[in-house]
Structure prediction request, 513 residues.
Amino acid sequence: MKYQGSGGGFLFFVVLIREVDMKTAASFRRILPKPAVPEAMFGRYRLDDFYDEMVSPKGDIRSWYEFFSNSMSGLGFSEIVQRQRAAEKAFMSMGITFNVYRDGAGVERIFPFDIIPRIIDTQEWDNIEKGLKQRIKALNFFIQDIYGPQNILKDGIIPSDVVLSSAGYLKQCEGLKPSRGLWAHVSGIDIIKHSDGINYVLEDNLRVPSGVSYVMGNREIMKRTFPEVFERMEVRPVNDYPLRLLEILEYLSPKEKPTIVVLTPGIYNSAYFEHSFLAQQMGVELVEGRDLVVQDGFVHMRTTRGFKRVDVIYRRIDDTYLDPRYFNPDSVLGVPGIFDAYLKGNVALANAPGTGVADDKVIYAYVPKMIKYYLDEESILPNVPTYMCWDEKDREHVIANIGKMVIKAANQSGGYGMLVGPQATKKDQNAFKEKIRRFPREYIAQPTMALSRIPTIVEDQVKGRHVDLRPYILCGRDIYVLPGGLTRVALREGSLVVNSSQGGGSKDTWVLR
Prediction:
């Protein structure tokens, strides 16, 4: 195994090994610089058989990590750990939190954060960006089509039953013509990198994707933690996201200076911090459903000076909670009559109601066919291979191989409603077999993918932890992809579930110019 980089680089301090014996490890110690603190603090960083974002299979630091690695080598590991602790305290002081709901109670937590970033080189990012733009174009065409002429169904590209039986398909949106002809203005597409080094799309999030505030919070913390590194490395900025989002929202209204609000379910929502953060950054009002009222076909906001007309709403509540007159009659989060105002073109909504159909994990499996159908192109970013349990042949294969599969509920998110077969008990596997047999349309299955790993500080040691990536895409006059997005990390050893609600954390994502 070899090392490179002046001074040995940061990973000299963590002693990379694959399966070396103690004699080989001792020979390494004789040639390595003496650590600044006892070696016992660092643990042993194992490459194993996963793609490592920072280290090549030969043990070399990847070229786009070299400057960061060399910069860390001059600090010493004790200083790095101190900066990790300082970053965690900064998150607490900044109030960057999320809520987890278990047993009927909400618990507010600091979002876990690790200071070793994910770095993406220019060539890889260019391919990701092109693939995301291609994908969101096709998804917008798809949503417009299925609420309109339904040509993709008539041509047999996707079975009609699959789309029309989706929980996200809203019959009330048939014939709808949203402002500027756009449906998904804000989306977050989850990507993983397999052991083959290829980026795969794991799922699409087009209703109310969350997490972008953590991207900006992570970047702010990293600039404080490693100011000298940011002075030298050409990392593409992310702090203009709120301005770009505001431009998208303004574009949806014909008025020159429209009144814009962010509609939140309230303080108990898991992403409330993000709702308030984005409203503050854009300089618009944060409102709840009770703050809005529909009068004379227009939406108005209650203010201390009376009612004020609202032109654009960035909604952060799900489709079916938007208007109790049209959707869920028990909803107290939405605004009675708001859908009528929307149908008349008197208010713009981002994202448009009905986009949730594209979040369905069964429909996700057909996105490559959508891209071919609407754009006449092959997918730049492939899907993870997917088995659809509504299909008898696929279903029997999944049941027979459930111990090797990841089973997902078609319309759940946040890591809920899923089974990671290799880590599940026989009892849980059998329970999911029964669910699949009873409700085959509601489940898909995917082979267990070997998510890439990144060195992560865990209990004052550096260990490999699995990650995914959620880039954010904005659609308006053109399509903008935020450079990098949210890298989520599974902090539990061996875990493949990166969701914050399941114990995951995050890293800053650097895209180099």
Remarks:
- Confidence is low (pLDDT under 50) at residues 1-42.
- The domain at 387-447 is CATH 3.30.1490.270 (Dna Ligase; domain 1).
- Residues 469 and 487 are 4 Å apart (CA to CA).
- The longest strand covers residues 461-470.
